[in-house]
Amino acid sequence: LCDIAAILGMHTLMSNQQYYEALASSTIVNKQGLNSVIQCTQYKPVPDEEPNATDVEETLTRVKRNDPDLVEVNLNNIKNIPVPTLKAYAEALMK
């Protein structure tokens, strides 16, 4: 059934869970046919990470100075870093 649905371009008739159950089983898993209801998997909401407190300009200055105490730079979860600042980071890291 999985292969036929894929060939016909109807792979959305099965959820991922139904697909993997069909692949793992040697018997027919869904005996209700294509009229059965497909429900989406309910996932737990994941809380957003807190904003990164890194001072972008200070860290850039330290990168440019090649500060030996600066071991890691984390720019994740910092909103609205200007493109020229990112280019300055790239240029400083190439040196």
Automatic annotation (TrEMBL):
Transmembrane segments: none annotated. InterPro entries: LRR_dom_sf, TMOD. Gene3D superfamilies: Ribonuclease Inhibitor. Keywords: Cytoplasm, Cytoskeleton. One of its GO terms (cellular component) is striated muscle thin filament. Its main location: cytoplasm. GO terms for molecular function: tropomyosin binding. It is found in: Cytoplasm, Cytoskeleton. Coiled coil: none annotated. It comes from the Eukaryota. GO terms for biological process: actin filament organization; muscle contraction; myofibril assembly; pointed-end actin filament capping. This is Tropomodulin 1. It comes from Iconisemion striatum. The lineage of its organism: Eukaryota, Metazoa, Chordata, Craniata, Vertebrata.
